[in-house]
Amino acid sequence: MYRFQYLGGVEEGKELMLKINEYIEFYTINQPFLSDDMISDLDKIRAEFQEVFEKFYKHIAVKNSDNLNEFFEASNKLKINKPFEDIEKKIIAEMRKDLKVKKF
Fold it and tell me: Which residues constitute the domain of residue 64?
């Protein structure tokens, strides 16, 4: 996402859209093996990722300068708010518990 923000174009946007769809397909297929909490967290990551991506894409690929504030808001979200960090930690902790792997 960081790279797309600064150097992205239509082709990179298409690639990211495909990766988002692959991610959705992956966790949808694996839902029977995941807890409700993990599914919820994976969905939150997807929602955050899509929101940031859409704001970047509108500005970069569609050349929409009207959404410059949204573009910077999305950029700050990645840099400052780190929307994925807490969710990733929860998912990793649950996976370690399920796999009976202790944190070193």
Answer: 2-99
The answer to whether residue 39 is domain-embedded is yes
Give the DSSP H or E segment for 102.
none
Rounded to 10°, the helix 36-60/10-29 angle is 170
* Higher per-residue confidence, 64 vs 84: 84
Amino acid, single-letter form, for residue 67:
N
Nearest alpha-carbon partner for 48 in 59, 60, 56: 56
Is 104 part of a structural domain of the chain?
A: no
Amino acid at 88: E
Considering the domain boundaries, does residue 80 fall inside one? Answer: yes
Separation of alpha carbons 27 and 36, rounded Å:
12
pLDDT higher than threshold 80 for residue 44? yes
